TrEMBL record:
<dbReference type="GO" id="GO:0042602">
    <property type="term" value="F:riboflavin reductase (NADPH) activity"/>
</dbReference>
<dbReference type="Pfam" id="PF01613">
    <property type="entry name" value="Flavin_Reduct"/>
</dbReference>
<dbReference type="InterPro" id="IPR002563">
    <property type="entry name" value="Flavin_Rdtase-like_dom"/>
</dbReference>
<dbReference type="InterPro" id="IPR012349">
    <property type="entry name" value="Split_barrel_FMN-bd"/>
</dbReference>
<keyword id="KW-0560">Oxidoreductase</keyword>
<dbReference type="GO" id="GO:0010181">
    <property type="term" value="F:FMN binding"/>
</dbReference>
<protein>
    <submittedName>
        <fullName>Flavin reductase</fullName>
    </submittedName>
</protein>
<dbReference type="InterPro" id="IPR050268">
    <property type="entry name" value="NADH-dep_flavin_reductase"/>
</dbReference>
<feature type="domain" description="Flavin reductase like">
    <location>
        <begin position="24"/>
        <end position="170"/>
    </location>
</feature>
Amino acid sequence: MIPVSQAIPEQLGPVDGRALRTVCGHFATGVTVITSGSGDNATGATVNSFTSVSLDPALVLICLHDDSRLLPVVQESGGFVVNFLTQRQEPVAWAFAGRRTARIEEVPHHRSVLDLPVLSEALAHLECRLVTEYDGGDHTILLGEVVGLRAPSEAEQEDPLIFFQGSMRTPAWS
């Protein structure tokens, strides 16, 4: 645990990136694979920096590192899909997590209305049209308008995959 004396400095200033990552690791998030592109340019990346922004209009945001191989693909295609993963898809999450990742062709997928790749076995997904981008330090914040979605029926319901303290986990209620 970070001592209170270090957590609340007398003078506000830059926070150490490693300490920020440690503290933010205490916030449990869902695990998503963001997919985009077409043909040989189709790709995906495991992302936990996703949030719903607005219901009217329907907007969500994701954050991608400025050096991400996915960022130029999303910018070129003008859209992205947020695929929410199930606990049984942990191998898929790891496959799309690094610089060298799985190819879209290696996982079951289909094409959306906007011709974007959707992971067929995902718990749910949101298809988004890229609305705008914002500078986010070493990341780019992408705002997307939700133009298509799918959630499971009660019969299809599965437990989500979550990320907490640097590892993927199964929810405690499972």
